[in-house]
Amino acid sequence: MNDHSARRSEPTMREVAALARVSTKTVSRVINDLPGVGEEAAERVRAAARSLGYRPNLTASSLRRSDRRSATLGVLFEDLSNPFDSALLRAIEDRARQNGVLVLAGSDEDDPTLQRELLTSLAARRVDGIVVMAVGGHQDALQQERERGTPMVLVDRPPTFGHTDSVTTTNRDSSREAVLKLAGLGHERIAFLGDRQTLWTSQERYTGYLEGLAHAGLKLHQELVRKDLQGVDVAEAAAASLLDLDNPPTALFTAQNLVTVGAMRVLRSRGLHHRVAVIGFDDFPLADMVDPAITVVRQDVPKIGRTAAELLLARVDGDDSPAVHKVIPAVLVPRGSGEIPPPTP
Amino acid sequence: MNDHSARRSEPTMREVAALARVSTKTVSRVINDLPGVGEEAAERVRAAARSLGYRPNLTASSLRRSDRRSATLGVLFEDLSNPFDSALLRAIEDRARQNGVLVLAGSDEDDPTLQRELLTSLAARRVDGIVVMAVGGHQDALQQERERGTPMVLVDRPPTFGHTDSVTTTNRDSSREAVLKLAGLGHERIAFLGDRQTLWTSQERYTGYLEGLAHAGLKLHQELVRKDLQGVDVAEAAAASLLDLDNPPTALFTAQNLVTVGAMRVLRSRGLHHRVAVIGFDDFPLADMVDPAITVVRQDVPKIGRTAAELLLARVDGDDSPAVHKVIPAVLVPRGSGEIPPPTP
DNA sequence: ATGAAAGCGCTAACAG
DNA sequence: CTGTTAGCGCTTTCAT
User: What is the CATH number of the domain that holds A124?
Assistant: First the structure.
């Protein structure tokens, strides 16, 4: 009664060929729209394929085919449920699909071991190339994979090894711009709250913060710097400790989206959300609906994804020009929280 | 100079076998941890594999292997960049990985044509099974795929055809609960704002709304019902038109996350966000940070994803017990917006 | 315009 | 314990 759920075996090219009374090669020609088949034969093949419900087996085809393509790209990100990562995945997927390419996706949690395992899994499936967000720290696994010849594009963070494309954003410049904006409003005590310092983006954003202070002629106050804030809760605690200082900051530069959320939470709970300025790096849904709406540095995620996919597809197609490192500009989006002036003494 | 970027061909089992002076079958045994290989030979094979950098080709192996498994699942959702979809993908991915299974993911935009195309693409790659969010309207393509024997689990929306598992949430019951809560506060004019009515979830949530009104002894006011709200902007316009009524609603039940965002936007812009109650279906990041924090019905997304993955993996493993339709409870999360009482006349 | 033979990398089914 | 043969479904190569 439940035959419905049994895995029926797919019809093969041979069966189609038999039904159409031609050779498998002729079927192959028809299926792949290759020339050299008479109209009558072609029609018989199409009819046979239709009646059997034949569907080509890309797996078998790619095994035999000379280019060995699987028409599949690997995507290896930190966390596919993070809005930044998922928006990026979507952009890559869309661009890849235009070329008939699908995406095999995985989350590595920024864990080198997991990243290595997933890399192996992708390689076992012979993906044509990989878009990857390198884990913080060493990139040995990626480099090894790359040296085997696997086409690879790094996103969000550049490679620490050679001959590999990357697509990143203006982390440093945009951070400097954010800090300069706060300084321009008169803020002199601007705190930095950043993610794990093993991440290149965090380092860049911190450097941008330092440059911003320097350009504004402001002194760096070490007690206003909090790094390695991983997750909302940790960020929250750090923000709280900053506000507890005898001479607390009047503005915060929060260098990652979860950090921004943590900081806003504390400000709200203390009723300071209209008194302390905040600019966050990375936009996120609803940032404009919070009270006050959050001023952020927004990356052009669709463009980053599209660019990465296009680069990779070109490499897969044999483009072996020197590696490029594309930088997609981010923009400062003023919404309110970043426009709060310092208190007048 | 740039040999680094050339696609080198992977070493094969044959090459390993030659180097280790054994047959390919022996290599196969070692690679797959099968018994029947002497320790000396096994060690020679391992050494040869290591020195050549051999990595098994799952594609070739699955072609020959009797179970035909690709150790890959297809995931076909509406939009992988939507927080609900991406959280679900992540949950499925995590569970699948425990079984060494990877995920081939695609977005179909709720478009039947795209869904059909992606289904074909997944089939061409011979995925072991598919987790899919059915498009609104007919499910012909899914049914056909299912009838070919492809293991399939529907998430978020149940199948309109037989012999197919699904995992959904308590759309109707939780909607009724939300409306009853608003009624319990004294609201009598409760509006419904819903997504496309072709979607099963929208219909269920609307039915729950009706049940809530009925149970509370409230009359249905057709002018307070707005359906087919697709996207934030459309929802915003609908909410505005509701507030423009001579006798506007005092509470809103927004039946989808983007609709909730649109409604909140309008309320804020009119300064009514502390005067009109709102309960939304579907939680989203920062819903607790908005002013007022938004009361929502929250689905247990990780559990939905895990359940779907486990069901599918079991089916792939040959479980052919009758189809099940799991319903994962959602909970009402009170945060403020849903606790606003009606104005006292 | 068509097909036969060989073989992609691997494993099933047998021998030894 | 180990190897040989065949063949998964398809495309290549080279005939005809």
Answer: 3.40.50.2300
